[in-house]
Write a structure and sequence with these properties.
By secondary structure, this protein is α+β, with helices and mostly antiparallel strands. It has one domain. The protein has helices at about 1-25, 40-60, 120-125, 140-150, 155, 175-190, 195-205, 220-225, 240, 250-260; strands at about 65-70, 85-90, 100-105, 110-115, 130-135, 210-215, 245-250, 265-270. A hairpin with an 8-residue loop joins strand 2 and strand 3. The two termini are about 25 Å apart.
Length: about 270
């Protein structure tokens, strides 16, 4: 028994070392993450890296090539949401095994960037809960996603004008989960049909896709617009906005589309 378990322990030690090395190499810059009031404690770093290691192990065990991975970076329970941020994890990416591609807001500004990070750095942030959700598409959709990430389409689908509550059917702004949604649309649509944000949103409309609707009262909207550069509501339809009905893209909204287009998809939780 010991002889069989020793290689697994050695592999896990190597995996942990690689994750930690990758995370520490980018730690000073905190690539694209929100500006934190205080640095992470040693305990938080250890828990984040442990979550990353267990997530990678789950992905290796699954045999997947491309997955959607979500983290719980803030408490959104008031809106009935468990996870706040999603990225696309690609197993055989040129930048490294299980590279996470995701859009990140640049330190609370009105801008964003598209980042390529190891799983360790993806979770190396001020997490509300040390838990991950992984959506594993069926084999056919994984193949289309892998092919898509070998092109420049994911870059073309990125809009640097960031808005945390961007309207699902506007190209004026984009939030992080909206980039994932539109990338998923490009992979799910017939070949050659979606290469731009306009085309992605057009396809979603044809699918009669409905996003998450958040109930945000006028007082909250006013405070957010006045005091936060990364929050805007002017892209939302006037009547919906005045009724406090904000239609935006959350991790739940992306999962909803996956369920609609891919009955073979499955979800697992790493906690």
């Amino acid at each position: 028994m010991r002889a069989r378990s020793e290689p697994r322990r050695a592999a896990r030690r190597l995996l942990a070392g690689l994750l930690l090395a990758g995370a520490l190499s980018t730690l000073p810059a905190q690539a694209g993450q929100a500006c934190a009031d205080k640095p992470l404690s040693a305990g938080e770093v250890v828990r984040s890296m442990d979550l990353a290691q267990r997530t990678v192990q789950a992905l290796e065990d699954s045999g997947a090539r491309v997955v959607l991975v979500s983290r719980a970076g803030q408490d959104l329970s008031r809106y009935g949401l468990r996870y706040s941020h999603m990225g696309v994890a690609v197993r055989d990416h040129p930048r490294g095994r299980w590279t996470v591609v995701h859009e990140l807001n640049d330190c609370g500004t009105a801008a964003s960037g598209l980042y390529y990070e190891g799983m360790g750095n993806f979770f190396l942030t001020d997490l509300h809960r040390f838990e991950a959700q992984v959506i594993i598409p069926g084999a056919a959709l994984q193949e289309r996603l892998a092919a898509l990430f070998a092109t420049r389409t994911p870059l073309r689908l990125h809009e640097p004008r960031y808005n945390m509550v961007a309207y699902v059917y506007s190209t004026q702004y984009q939030n992080s989960n909206q980039w994932v949604l539109e990338t998923l649309a490009a992979a799910s649509a017939p070949p050659g049909e979606v290469a731009t944000r306009e085309e992605a949103q057009g396809w979603l409309k044809e699918m009669r896709y409905q996003p998450t609707t958040l109930a945000i009262p006028a007082s909250t909207r006013l405070g957010g617009r006045m005091f936060r550069a990364n929050v805007a509501f002017d892209d939302h339809p006037f009547d919906r906005r005045m009724a406090g009905q904000i239609d935006t893209v959350t991790t739940d909204a992306v999962r909803k589309l996956v369920r609609a287009v891919d009955p073979q998809a499955r979800t697992l939780v790493v906690d």
